[in-house]
Amino acid sequence: MLAVAGAIAASPQALAAPLASQSQAAPAAGAGHAIAAHLDAAQRPTARAAERTYTVAPRDTLSAIAQRFYGHASDWPWLYRVNRATISDPNLINAGQVLTVPADPPASAVNGTSRPRHAKASSATTSGTSPSTGTAASPPRTGSKASSGGPGTVTCSAAAQGMVPENYATIVSFLTSHGYTGLAAAGIAGNIFQESEGNPESVGSGGGGLIGFTPLPAGYVTGNPSADLQTQLNAVLTYNQQWSQFIPALNAATSAVQAADIYMNDFERPGIPAASNREAAAQAVAAACNL
Q1: For a disulfide at 149, which of 57, 125, 183, 199, Cβ 3.0-4.6 Å?
Q2: Average pLDDT, the chain
Q3: Domain 2-111 bears CATH identifier 3.40.640.10
């Protein structure tokens, strides 16, 4: 029997599905604060990450399992990431699958607050600065030929057809001029299409802007689309630096679809994946930009 992995907005019925852990050992001292308060103490997982597993039950979802172990359904991408060898599609998990459930979840499971999926970087890092400064953080450059997918200058001269986001030429040109390959830029643009259709003035569901920054920082949407586009593109660079370990894989993508999936799973990590939309938009951008 198949169990469909839910998004952040998973139905209450999905989150209330019966759950049964293989590990019933008592939690280590102090570990209880990382688990939802309503869980019975005997059901709380241990702190031994390497020893803890969970067998998927009928009607389970990744978001329900995240709720079970971490107290936050929105932490399902963490489970997906650590079980990539087992799960090929986060929207489709099988009853009977044995998943690894690490005891070192994201900060949201430790402090009891769910981290916004497009949170503004709280401070500068060695490879980037806060988007509020307006200074872009760039990944390392690895080449110069845009025609082969490497960083450089891309000319989007072909007729745009299909799910192409607004401002796609500016988005791709900006990203490739800051170290991303053409295909990586197309993958990012495909995700931008799903989040905002490329409109920097897009606002809704508590966030807004190109990648649905949540919460939306002040000064990102001001009513000046041209200026806001540049502000948000700089912010995208800084946002990406939070996941800089995945940039090499993104730049190594051999297709726009692969790049879209990498950006979705390792950077965007959306509550509603809608992967087919992101992939189709990335392909449309790649075609329009001769990639």
Answers
A1: 183
A2: 72
A3: no
